[in-house]
Specification:
The complex is a heterodimer of chains A (about 325) and B (about 140). Chain A has about 325 residues and is of the alpha+beta class. Chain A folds into two domains: about 15-30 and about 80-175, Cathepsin B, Chain A (Alpha-Beta Complex), CATH 3.90.70.10; about 185-335, no CATH class. Chain A is built from twelve helices and eight strands. In chain A, a hairpin with a 7-residue loop joins strand 6 (about 140) and strand 7 (about 150-155). The relative contact order of chain A is 0.15. Chain B has two domains: about 5-35, no CATH class; about 40-130, Orthogonal Bundle (434 Repressor (Amino-terminal Domain)). By secondary structure, chain B is mainly α. Chain B has a two-stranded antiparallel sheet with strand order 1-2. Classes of the chains: A alpha+beta (about 325), B mainly alpha (about 140). Chains A and B meet through helix 9, helix 10 and helix 11 of A and strand 1, strand 2, helix 1 and helix 3 of B.
Chain lengths: ~325, ~140
């Protein structure tokens, strides 16, 4: 059985899945950047007291699952999301959805994801894909980071749906309940909601770890990494920062380019000239993140390594923080 | 980033699929462009794996010296910490810590060994001898 579903590759898994699951009822209008922006996906956080794969815990995006949830919420679409205690029930629910003719989003872990290159298989449990059919024992999979649809046997799919560790997916599946078409007015309102929410997250979350303040906080920490950790370990930490920023799913520049694309698309619905100008600031910020990444690469490749080089890294981040702060303040001031 | 500046350095993922990047065209409008990879991040990934490899080698030596049980080796090999292993096996963290000692590991029943072997996706005798097949 194969549902009527068109695979489309995207940059980021969750906004890609959101865009694809909403394609039918939105007539393709909810593109990936729109899903990312309406879902208020842009973020920054550095949590110094947590370690991931023996390195720093850094994220350039919101908590997994939020983009789909917030996008649908802002559009006023009811969402169904289920977790399961038993593997049998999880598969039965998946089959039932397919029988009802709906493609389903699944949260999975990538460690045992067979079609992924081994180099990318860490215990990362917040990957998203869509199941859109079953042929014999193979489930038909639309993984947004792959350029073509793929397949997983029922055992392979069960295994990744029940991956263990942080953010264990517990067989989680989700889809949008509504069948009503999405209007342009709905999208316009949702865009404004998404931007407001993103302003709050980047500017107003209390504490030093999140949003623009998080970037500044990390800038200060990086200056001390060399003395505290030694050049080699500090290099590994910077490598982890670059991976979170540039690895598959970010669209480049730590999601800043997708956000810039979102603001351009948003302009078509709201006609605020400011959006186009602010979009350029995010492009600048993305470029600067990448310049910083090149500098960081110099350190972890061993070409650079003096205290000045670490200070320079900190300076880049401060500059980025200032840019993004101004961009979000400008977004906040827009009269809709 | 301008469209023509999207990096095309063939990396691990590039051999399997190209990834989408968002970049601006000549008029400043955002479009998507496929990328084969970028040396800066390929290198970052290599750094991560080099660290992992060092940890595996160290763990292997510790097991050979009789300072730890083969569980330590497989935990490093499968990138698992005690929390993840505890989730996969259903054992408490303190139990796993005990089983990390060679003398406790050697007294484990076949059934318990099987649980660990399943979590690491190997056979029981491979578990005992630190044998791995996958490339």
């Amino acid at each position: 059985m194969k549902l009527d579903f068109e695979h489309r590759q995207s940059a980021h898994c969750e906004s890609g899945v959101t865009s694809s699951l909403l394609r039918k009822i939105s007539g393709g209008k909810i593109t990936e950047p729109l899903a990312f922006g309406i879902g208020a996906g842009l973020f920054f956080t550095y949590l110094p007291f947590i370690k991931i794969n023996n390195g720093p815990a850094i994220a350039f995006r919101t908590f997994p699952g939020l983009i789909f949830k917030k996008t649908c919420q802002a559009l006023g679409i009811p969402v169904v999301r289920k977790k399961f205690g038993s593997k049998e029930k999880a598969e039965a629910a998946l089959k039932q959805c397919l029988d009802e003719g709906r493609p389903v989003g699944c949260q999975v872990g990538v460690y045992y994801l067979s079609y992924f290159p081994r180099e990318y298989r860490f215990h990362f449990n917040a990957h998203n894909l869509i199941v859109f059919g079953k042929e014999d024992d193979n489930y038909l999979i639309s993984d947004p980071v792959m350029d073509t649809p793929t397949k997983l046997t029922s055992y392979e799919l069960e295994r990744v749906r029940f991956a263990k560790g942080t953010l264990a997916p517990k067989g989680q599946l989700y889809y949008a309940e509504s069948k009503a078409e999405i209007t342009d007015e709905q999208i316009r309102k949702a865009i404004i909601k998404g931007i407001k929410r993103n302003c709050f997250m980047m500017l107003s979350i209390p504490g030093p770890f999140a949003g623009v303040k998080g970037i500044k906080y990390l800038a200060g920490k990086i200056r001390k990494w060399r003395d505290k950790l030694g050049v080699q370990k500090a290099g590994s930490y910077l490598a982890q920062l670059v991976r979170m920023q540039e690895e598959i799913g970010t669209g480049g520049g730590g999601f800043r380019y997708i956000y810039a694309a979102f603001l351009q698309e948003a302009y078509a619905y709201t006609h605020n000239d400011e959006l186009l100008e602010i979009s350029k600031i995010f492009t600048q910020s993305g470029d600067l993140w990448r310049t910083a990444a090149v500098h960081a690469a110099g350190i972890y490749k061993g070409r650079l390594g003096s205290q000045q080089d670490f200070d320079q890294m900190g300076d880049y981040l401060l500059e980025i923080a200032e840019l993004e702060k101004n961009a979000f303040l400008a977004l906040k001031k827009i009269k809709w | 980033m301008k469209k023509e500046n999207v990096p095309q350095d063939l990396g691990a993922l590039g051999k399997i699929t190209k990834e989408i990047c968002y970049a601006t065209d000549s008029s400043g409008k955002y479009v998507t462009e496929l990328s084969n990879g970028w040396d800066v991040k390929t290198e970052a990934l290599n750094v991560a794996w080099k660290d992992v490899e060092e940890r595996i080698a160290k763990a292997r030596q510790q097991v050979l010296n009789g300072e730890a049980s083969p569980l330590l080796f497989f935990m490093e090999y499968r990138l698992m910490d005690i929390g993840i292993l505890s989730d996969y096996t259903g054992y408490w963290k303190w139990q796993i810590k005990r089983h990390l000692k060679p003398e406790m590991f050697n007294r484990l029943s076949e059934k318990r060994l099987q649980k660990y072997a399943d979590a690491f996706n190997v056979k029981v005798d491979e578990l005992k001898t630190m044998t791995v097949h996958e490339a």
